Type II secretion protein F
Amino acid sequence: MIVYGIITLLIIVVYFVFSIKAGKRYDIVIANFKDQYPLMFMAPVSLYIIDNLKIMERFYSQIAKIQQKMISLYGNRTALQHTRMYVAQLLSTVMVCLLGSFIFTLVSNGDQTIFFVGIIFTVLIPYAMISRLASQERERKQKILTELPEVVNKIILLVNAGETVQQALIRCVTSTKDPNSPLIRELTETVNKMVSNEPFHQVLNDLSKKCGIQEISIFTTTILLNYRKGGNDLILALRDLSHELWEKRKSISKTKGEEASSKLVFPLILIFVAVMIIVGYPALTIM
């Protein structure tokens, strides 16, 4: 029990020492991300540890996987900053879980069970956070794939009506105002670059890289190969692509339906067990 008390005191002292050393060095960084990540009050200490122990460099192969997801979610420009803050969040979570494990063990008079449960949570919670990040990336890709066929159809109609591809993209963005649409957000950024007179091929290549989805790459490549020709070549290419995208959308919808039905299995089992207990208990008491 004394050992747990000493370790708890040591963790608290080390935290305050690092907090003093970190000072206000990371205030600007934290201000930029204060509404996006929890445990921001521990961020200065976590960032100080990351910088001094060179965690980003030493565990590059593991952190690179997180950075790849950040590129998909936030783009190349801010991916490194988001990755750094996310690693800081993971480190803060581990410190809180460790400190909580020692404190609760100390309060329970050195109960080893509580300590081991706390250690298990210390391992599982960061793993769950990384899994949640992967699911966010997957959901974003599925939303983009779900919305892309409608955008392609609008472009086909607008080009058929005599507008250029650039004008059609601008019309798609201005006519669709959905703040929760990841595809529209990406297209809005693309249109803003076009309006700023950036090269059209470079803008579409940036869109392809940022989304990191094969279907978006096919979409941008199809436009780049055919938009100069215009006419029937572009329309036919976009129609073929639209057909493939609608099939992909049907597949995603089917998969989501199967996932939803599988998630209902466990609650139905619980309800069945509860009903069996309610019905069977009076019979057992009579016997």
About this structure: The mean pLDDT is 81. Residues 112-160 form the longest helix (49 residues).
